[in-house]
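A reminder before we start the practical. When you read a complex entry, don't treat the lines as separate problems. The point of joint prediction is that each chain is placed relative to the others, so the output describes one connected object in space. Small molecules and nucleic acid strands, if listed, are placed in the same frame. In the example below there are two entries. Take a minute to note the order of the lines before looking further.
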Amino acid sequence: MSHTGDKLLIDVGSTYFKVSTPDTIEQYFRDFSKDILDDLMDRCGDVISVYDKSDVYICSSANGGLSTLIIGVTNSFSLKYATNIAFNSGINIIDTILYQDIEEHSLPSDLIDVVIIVGGVDTHANLFAQPLYHYLGQLNCSNIVFVGSSQDAPQIRDNIENVAILPTIVDEKLHIVEEHLKEYLTNLYQQDIEGKEDIKNLYDITSNQIFATPYIVNRALPLINARYSVADPFILLDIGGATTDIHYSKDLVDDNMVTENEYDRLVFKRLGVYKSRQSLILAAQNNEFVYELLMHLKVTENILVEQSEKATKILMQLAIFLVLCKMSHYQKSYINLKLLAINSIMLTGGITKVLTIEEIEVIIAFFYKKILTSDHNPVAILDTNYDIWTLGAMGE
Amino acid sequence: MKVVTGVVGNDIHVVANRLIDLSLRARGYDVFNLGVNTHLEEFFDAVVETGAEVLMISSLNGEAEGWGREVKLLKARYKTIDDLIMMIGGNLVVGSGNSEEIVARYENYGFDLVCHQVDLNTGLDLLQALLKERNIT
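Here is the predicted structure of the whole assembly.
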């Protein structure tokens, strides 16, 4: 069992919360009729009360995080770089718009938490004009940030109210510059979490900053080898109640980005086994291989509408399969990973409490055989203590 | 004057790419070098991001032949690079061929200046002459 000194670590998820003491990790299914703090104190108030506020560390991914719309001038540089930074900051991307096509682009109906405008190296100017201001004028958004050419910044400031101006994310070598935008987005995420009443109340039991869980998990990745026998390169699938996160090593991607970070993260927002159950079922029904997989698992498609322990298990198995499909050449997505190069697939999240290693391996083998037509079989590793996040939480 | 340069397609002839980079800088150009193994879309995207007036593609193993056919189609999708000067140089075919035919073929692909098996300095002189002819400073 992990030893975390005299710290008490708490992770508040959308479905479960986890409490880690030096001796044990417990997880609890959330009671949604209660405030998070009340729920937490009801279940483990006796443990929490033992710790000083300065020894309690909390992270949270509850309530889904922020949404962003990115407007950029090219696919290969500005949009690609901003998308990468947004994902790594834990932000959900609603849409990306190529600026030259902005007049033909429809307006999203939802409120956007942050709009990112990007384009141009510092030696270029006049990349944006009236069509941008007209589009933004119709948009319902809370924050706008500009990370394009510094020569365009004054014009942008004059035409867009309350815009935050940061240095460009495309440098003179056309390489990505992550830090300023990443810090801005991470701070927004942080403010969003802290602004939620439920989360604010948690400061009654901690005097430390409450971090976003994806940030904490990403921080844990370089430390994973210390606790698990993971063969590089590996991917980490965090299949939770509302979303599925994939954390992966940069070696697994072919692209033109040179960054200082070793790992990236990708979020599939509506692919969870509890809160996003219906959209997971819909995604399964739209995948032509799923029926064959169900047959392979010796069940029929009726299992998708059942409410039973067996049905939950099958849904979790399907979630693994669908996520792997989304990362492969089978489905063109933001990133396609070199899945044949992977030696380990690590799984964390609620899934580790429900599926056995054998039940996971059967899915991985099916995926590699059917989709990648290969006998390659990476090792599956389960974070059975559900404690990868504690590595990141202890990181500082 | 800004120039975007690089080696197109699955071509890793990095030495020539470095020489082009150095020679362009020596002549006073601002160079945005995308290096080897560059896709056509990345060249055009780099032009948009930098505001370059010249796109100079190099190819040493005939790789450009396949990609060249896509140039007009792809360039037509961009709304802001109509005035771009497009130059290609290197060994533009696999094996040997009639130089005049090869130049005509590449001009038909949409290149303003085609330097098949022409030495680097001569090619850059030709570029300077073309820029002067079009009053681009």
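Discuss with your neighbour: The mean pLDDT of chain B is 92. What might explain this?
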